[in-house]
Automatic annotation (TrEMBL), chains A, B:
GO molecular function: heme binding; molybdenum ion binding; molybdopterin cofactor binding; sulfite oxidase activity
Signal peptide from the UniProt entry: 1-31
Keywords associated with the record: Metal-binding, Molybdenum, Oxidoreductase, Signal
Coiled coil, from the record: none
Domain Oxidoreductase molybdopterin-binding: 113-268
The organism of origin for this protein: Cereibacter azotoformans
Domain of life: Bacteria
Record keyword Manganese present: no
Pfam family membership, one: Oxidored_molyb
Name this protein carries in UniProt: Sulfur dehydrogenase subunit SoxC
């Protein structure tokens, strides 16, 4: 955590402002007489609440029923091929609960029981092997927290501001603690032949989702995972077993993993040629753009999370991440990038995982052009959209990690805008 | 992570065994002809699965419906005052999902909406204050991962082995990433008078659950928390706001927090006199035993999670934690404490948070007396139950952090036993 005195508003100044906030609440209550929520015994203090057997497995309280994954209907032809976005404007901290972590499938979320799961490793290996689920969990496990981001996250924003909410502009991301077996352990079992340079990963659903991964990555930090945030993967996240490819685009994290083939060259399958390649201004496409570049987004205030309290002490909250390592710094601008101030990071800082940042300031009620800018542990600085476009044009929907702008109006409402 | 070659079974030895495991699966399939799960196209690969709109907020897949909180009916008179234990034998990693994180209430889980929530700070302060929820979230937030353990976790085991499963012997614990405001920030708003040495924390439910906390702890790492694992607290965990008292016994983590009073001495309320004090052999009681001592438990194998695969490569998995800091080492014994070997820690290591350990070995099918022993960052070593009893007798149900034993039989089943 950085020193909070480095910000534009000093700690003392902030607290002085906040005291006024506290006083305001008391004042409001006094205006209509004593606050009955303080002076009167409330119903919930006069009767028993739910017993512990009420919910063997609990769900969020009904007051939070708006904190759910949401689709954008016009984005795709049907809900099978669509995306349900994480409500990042309502979340805080760094962990994403499985229940509202974004989902995207290529042939729908299938139901595959553990006894029916098989993983075959074949191709350029000494010993082709088939693993059952019970075989898998006899190997040494590891736990790591990683973000998964779809390559198309923010893709609709390449050409300009489109979707009015960070759930939709940046919600194709989640961050979980995975438990799994390093893929290198399983490959060592099979014995990769010297000519084995690539690995094909394939899922068990009807899309036969498959991607080629270079052997170097496959032997590095890739996990064959069976738990997320402590419990079994959810159906929509690939139960019972999915691939975890840290820092690389989400479509490579093959769900319902069924087959690993070792080869001497990439397969150039459908999802790495017609899709998930980046078409440039001249019509040619970049390929093998696996790594997710450093990126950040202010989640509050944002179009779905306006400032409702009027001028005074205000908390800006956001997320930052990098496929290359951890986040070293985040900067926030209130004026569309003219001036930048250091944000405060708080919480766990893991390589290739989400980081939470905050910036507290005393809002004077005037318009803001909010931006955030991440710097990762390699020194890479998140670029502007203009900088991205100057090199990559506007033909792609993938790998937009440009700095994003929210226009906060005097009434506290926020809107997705683009400034030049 | 420690070097895996430090274990009784070498890495090479383990992998050789595991290869046999993989081969076994293939053999089994061959015995009845080709494995149709490999050779035939399966139903889930021939039709579309669920669309992304199926579950805006998802639940675990039905195959995992046994992974739930469970009560022990005879433990208390009714389910209001009872405990629903975390299914730690089925979880892995370090994070506990809110949905199955243990719950215990003193007057049931109440429903309290954010607009109805108030927090009053009064007593020996310069400025008595009332905070609304909207006031609260305008202060600078922090994110920290902490375990919460009930002081009575393992309490039924003081006199000897009783409950056959780690869910029941050690499941009054969970570990979450909390987002909240440091209590010291709110106390600074109110201005603690020099004579203010203690703080009373009180909940809004009918039990008026209240505990005295010394001012030093209140100004240290205590959080007024409103999110856990990224999302709103669940109803049963104190929605919308609870106290987080890192490393200290769970009953002090007051739920539905409504009142903070600053005083010059402790209040000696019901829950810190008749309850949550430790009766010694001579009938006198220890009080203010807030801090949770270092502890560990093997979660698998255990009575609810037997070894089902027969002799060969076997993974022992468990949890370790300390209210004083992080976990430095965990040792595992296969023979009831005669010989100890170093376990491998994997995953996040935060102060006052759960740590995950593993120990891989080649089981020869003979009986085991499994034990684990934690060493925390202060150098404290988890004691045996005999050591605990020699100082504290058997009259208390609180603060049993003794080394626990599972007897694994030749058929892989495990039983809760005590050895002298």
């Amino acid at each position: 955590m950085t020193d909070t005195t480095k910000k534009g508003t000093t700690r003392r100044g902030f607290l002085a402002g906040a005291a006024a906030g506290g006083a305001l609440a008391a004042t409001a209550a006094r205006a209509g007489g004593p606050d009955p929520l303080i002076t009167e015994v409330q119903p919930w203090a006069q009767s028993l609440g739910d017993g512990v057997d009420a919910t063997p497995y609990g769900m969020p309280i009904h007051f939070e029923s708006h904190v759910v994954r949401r689709n954008v209907e016009w984005l795709t032809a049907d809900t099978i091929s669509s995306v349900n976005f994480t409500p990042i404007h309502e979340l805080d901290g760094t962990i994403t609960p499985q229940g509202c972590a974004f989902e995207r499938h290529h042939a729908g979320a299938i139901e595959l029981a553990k006894p029916d799961w098989r993983l075959m490793i074949h191709g350029l290996v000494e010993r082709p092997l088939v693993f059952t689920y019970d075989d898998l969990i006899r190997f040494p496990r590891e736990n790591h927290t990683y973000f998964l981001e779809c390559a198309a996250n923010g893709g609709m924003e390449w050409a300009g501001a489109q979707l009015n909410g960070c759930q939709f502009t940046h919600g194709m991301i989640h961050n979980m603690e995975y438990t799994g077996i390093p893929l290198r352990t399983l490959l060592a079992e099979a014995g990769v032949k010297p000519e084995g340079k690539w690995v094909l990963m394939e899922g068990a659903d009807a899309s036969s989702m498959s991607r080629s991964i270079p052997i170097g990555k496959a032997l590095d930090d890739v996990l064959v995972a069976f738990k997320a945030n402590g419990e079994a993967l959810r159906k929509e996240h690939g139960y019972p077993v999915r691939l975890v490819v840290p820092g690389w685009e989400g479509n490579m994290w093959v769900k319902w993993l069924r087959r690993v083939e070792v080869g001497d060259q990439p397969w150039e399958h459908r999802e790495e040629t017609s899709k998930y390649t980046d078409t440039m201004a001249d019509g040619r496409s970049r390929r093998w753009t696996w790594e997710m570049d450093a990126k950040s987004i202010i989640t509050s205030p944002s179009p779905q999370a306006p400032i409702t309290h009027g001028p005074g002490p205000t908390v800006i909250s956001g997320l930052a991440w990098s496929g290359r390592g951890s986040i070293r710094e985040v900067h926030v601008s209130l004026d569309g990038g003219k001036n930048w101030q250091q944000a405060r990071l708080s919480g766990a800082s893991h390589d290739k995982a989400l980081h939470r940042f905050y910036f507290e300031f005393d809002w004077n009620g005037s318009e803001l052009l909010l931006q955030s800018r991440a710097v990762d542990s390699t020194g890479y600085v998140q670029p502007t959209k203009e900088q991205l476009r100057s090199f990559r044009g506007v033909n792609s929907v993938y790998h937009n990690n440009g700095i994003h702008t929210w226009w906060v109006k005097t009434n506290g409402e926020a809107e997705n805008v683009e400034i030049s």
